[in-house]
From TrEMBL, chains A, B:
Gene3D superfamilies: Aspartate Aminotransferase, domain 1, dopa decarboxylase, N-terminal domain, Type I PLP-dependent aspartate aminotransferase-like (Major domain)
Protein name stated in the entry: Tyrosine decarboxylase
Keyword Membrane: no
PANTHER family documented for this protein: GROUP II PYRIDOXAL-5-PHOSPHATE DECARBOXYLASE (PTHR11999), TYROSINE DECARBOXYLASE (PTHR11999:SF96)
Cofactors (names): pyridoxal 5'-phosphate
GO molecular function ontology, one term from the record: pyridoxal phosphate binding
UniProtKB keywords: Decarboxylase, Lyase, Pyridoxal phosphate
Keyword Coiled coil: no
GO terms (BP aspect): amino acid metabolic process; carboxylic acid metabolic process; tyramine biosynthetic process
Length: 532, 532
């Protein structure tokens, strides 16, 4: 089927029903033919091939092992040392074949219905096509003038999304705040932190950067520590406050208060709190309202809420406890690519005081074209709201998703995952060998095998569960889950969030886990027997 | 043609030949029908519509005014306050119509053949489809294990691209260095700066961040100052060394040495130099080899080369003077989305010592899944090479571009723009009313109207040229250029880099500039006459 191509193609690892059709009858742009580089007919011809390729991939996605069995270097070894000098004949078709035969068998299929690891990528047809459309239009909306409609659509969709998530008006443009669409939570947290830092340093003097202290819990995502490091906060001034199982791994306001008090007494300056709604390990929800009250007592500490995962759940009014948290925060971010049908990457951030962002990140140079039409207007130049000047037209994708699925569609999507997670949780509880380790609030179930009597302590139990995860993930048509280690307890994480996941995938996943557990426990019993 | 849709559609501003066909006969995913959110057939059907939509856009692109005549709020006023609760019937088709009728008439068409402003976005069919493919596959390659083939392809293509650009082996994986593909130069510079900062602070003590000094010229892109601010370098410790027209606006090694010496004598610590190959205003090239020698004399100052624009030109061996510059640098970045046919966004960065990056930006948390296959191997986890954890599979696009156009294809593309710029330069020189203000080295021509006698000084000449740019840009089928202000001299910038630009567009652009100049000069002559 595949003629010899620039890469050596390999066999094996392809989906069992080999769904992706070969691409044929295409010619390739000539190296010298620069006029054809962006030719409408050429785009149409190759573009239809790409659409069919992706559709075929989706059709066969359930048949791929979620995670490939490959070893480091497997792909590098198969590719030439240099880029081709001139394209081979029919290069695009050959490249698509190599994507099918070389690359897809070596990726982790984040969209697989059996992907339960990390937080799965909650993608959609409209999200993917929104990205494709933005790439085709290819504008660079770093200022209003650099693409007015792109900036305005971004302003509209962050307000749309903010209202859909029941955020307070003060975080929306309509209420004097405002939002932007960045790539990742890492960027959002960094922007908020730099804005807070510069506002504080303007008060206390720029040279006191070494006195600033930031706060989080031991459950806060590494993104925050990364941002704090980048922003020049001393590593020893990042307070990771311990959390406990009895508190559902949420950050304790009194512990935060004590930490801030101690820092103030030591002559340091509390700067920033990164609270989390839906931690990565167990989806714990920090008591943000109470934390804001503590922060307010310490000279206006900036409170950012990292709702990377669970922010999407705010679309459902039944999560009213969680919705209430945003009332007094300075900024909040969530990843629409995590659970809200926007393809990677898509992080929405809102701030109550955009002027602090612009003061820290704003730029002014002659060569940035202004537009006479914008003079006297208070236009948003999004280059001043983020860490980068060049940016993509991500708003288009978010707008299409909201438009084509509607707020009710997003709710159905979230609810279906929450319901499947509840069903998985019930199955775990029905099997006395297992326990649910952390309360399930959204669509993540944290569970583990109880330690069999006489096996030994916590360490042995952790090893047992580590082995269970490894074996469950090794089944080529089985689930792919990940783990957490919280308070010394190792647990398996079953995160339901892939758009293609249906109830049967959840049931089958549980069956695989049960079977592997049975086999492991038999071995353990034998081992305990023998070693007596 | 367009039935009533969720948005109110407007007329006017569409391309004159209205090339984009109406999209019909489609139904929309039901809000409750989550099973269809990523359905292969639905993707195929809507995907083909998107491909035709983009192809139609390309076909009519030359007919749009490059820059829209709109005023702030024009789009926000036309959109509803809230996202729809449920999608309207045929929502996707309606949304595409609104993209055509509402959004496209309000964007700046960066891919227009008459876009000569900033640096145009040098896009391609394969670049756009590479983005579409990556969005469809939607993997999140933050570690090797999180998508092995994506990480390995990135390692391969940065070496491919590095060799194609004649970079020294020490910046490639093959030579002990290595590269990554980020979104923007802002990110690349920030990563390099944070790596350098933390390496230096490990030597001199973390609390001395307030003693660190960074260097650039007054021509360096604001991206560097933004990065320095984010990284916590004191604003007054960013030395912007003046450049001069006699030095072609390049950074003087002796001035750099003097600045560093003065800082050392004041007890400060020189940290980082951001040199530029192809400045934004005039494409000046700093003498990087000599600057590296100066940096080496001051305790291993990290030298980063920002080759955001001109890095692409290194693909052509005839730029051997420029190619030679990378020999001793610590890191280098270039935007393949600026001039190398990769759609936005795409910044390649190479470093000689990846370990410094990982030391500063590396993360380690239990919930990040490892892969047993990777144990004992020295795998690259790209989350430790950048400011973010979540990232897109940008390598796919770069690989497709290199594969389908070949290194010779990239050369032809760059050379055709350089040749057109040379032709434009010659036309400017042929008209005695104009002067070329800065030497043309790549595909940017900086020029201005000479100040007519008796008009007055530099300020009046600047006003004259400001008016010339405004009038030239106002012609709806004319060019769109930008400006620079260097050494008190205002100049027009004609940057040739849009993939669709042909010689006739350049000739026509010049004709518009000449005509406007004639009309402005007549008015000026009358005014000078009258006011005598």
């Amino acid at each position: 089927m595949a003629p010899p191509s620039h890469c050596h193609t390999i066999n094996g690892g392809a989906p069992r029903n080999g769904a992706i059709s070969a691409v044929e009858t295409t010619s390739t742009p000539e190296a010298s033919d620069t006029a054809r580089l962006l030719d409408a007919d050429e785009f149409r011809r190759l573009g239809h091939q790409v659409v069919d390729f992706i559709a075929d991939y989706y059709a066969g996605l359930g048949d791929y092992p979620v995670h490939p069995s490959v070893t480091p270097g497997f792909l590098r070894r198969q590719l030439p040392v240099d880029a081709p000098s001139r394209p081979e004949p029919e290069a695009f078709a050959a490249a698509l074949r190599d994507v099918r035969d070389l690359i897809l068998p070596g990726v982790t299929h984040w969209q697989s219905p059996r992907h339960f690891a990390h937080f799965p990528a909650s993608s959609s047809t409209v999200g993917a096509l929104g990205e494709a459309l933005a790439a085709g239009i290819n504008v660079v909306p770093f200022t209003w003038a650099a693409s007015p409609a792109a900036t305005e659509l971004e302003m509209v969709v962050v307000d749309w999304l903010g209202r859909a998530l029941h955020l307070p008006e003060r975080l929306l443009f309509a209420g004097g705040g405002g939002g932007t669409i960045l790539g990742t939570s890492c960027e959002a947290i960094l922007c908020a932190l730099v804005a807070a830092r510069d506002r504080k340093l303007a008060e206390i003097g720029a040279r006191r950067i070494g006195d600033l202290v930031v706060y989080c819990s031991d459950q806060t995502h590494f993104a925050f520590r990364k941002a704090a490091r980048i922003a020049g906060i001393l590593r020893e001034h990042c307070r990771e406050i311990p959390t406990y199982r009895d508190d559902t791994f949420a950050l304790s306001p009194s512990a935060l208060h004590a930490a801030m008090q101690a820092d103030v007494e030591a002559g340091l300056v509390p700067l920033f709190l990164c609270a989390t709604v839906g931690t990565t390990q167990t989806t714990a929800v920090d008591p943000v309202r109470e934390l804001c009250a503590v922060a307010a007592r310490h000279g206006g500490v900036w409170v950012h809420v990292d709702a990377a995962y669970a922010g999407s759940a705010l679309v459902c009014p039944e999560f009213r406890d969680v919705i209430a948290i945003a009332e007094a925060v300075d900024s909040l971010s969530m990843n629409a690519h995590k659970w809200l049908l926007a393809n990677n990457d898509c992080c929405a951030m809102w701030v109550a005081a955009p002027s602090a962002l612009v003061a820290a990140l704003g730029t002014e140079q002659e060569y940035i074209l202004k537009d006479a039409a914008a003079e006297g207007h208070d236009v948003v130049d999004y280059k001043d709201w983020g860490t980068t000047l060049t940016r993509r037209f991500r708003a288009l994708k978010v707008w299409l998703v909201l438009r084509c699925y509607g707020v009710e569609g997003l709710r159905s999507h979230v609810r279906s995952h929450v319901a499947m997670a509840a069903a998985f949780e019930a199955m775990v509880r029905d099997d006395a060998r297992f326990e649910v380790v952390a309360p399930r609030r959204f669509a993540l179930v944290c569970f583990r095998l109880r330690s069999p009597e006489r096996l030994g302590g916590e360490k042995a139990a952790n090893e047992l569960n580590r082995r269970l995860l490894e074996e469950a993930n090794a089944a080529s048509s089985g689930p792919y889950m990940s783990s957490a280690m919280v308070g010394g307890v190792y647990m398996l994480r079953c995160a339901i969030g892939s758009t293609l996941t249906e109830e049967r995938h959840v049931r089958e996943a549980w069956k695989v886990v049960q079977e592997r557990a049975t086999s492991i426990l038999v071995n353990v019993a034998n081992w305990v027997q023998t070693s007596r």
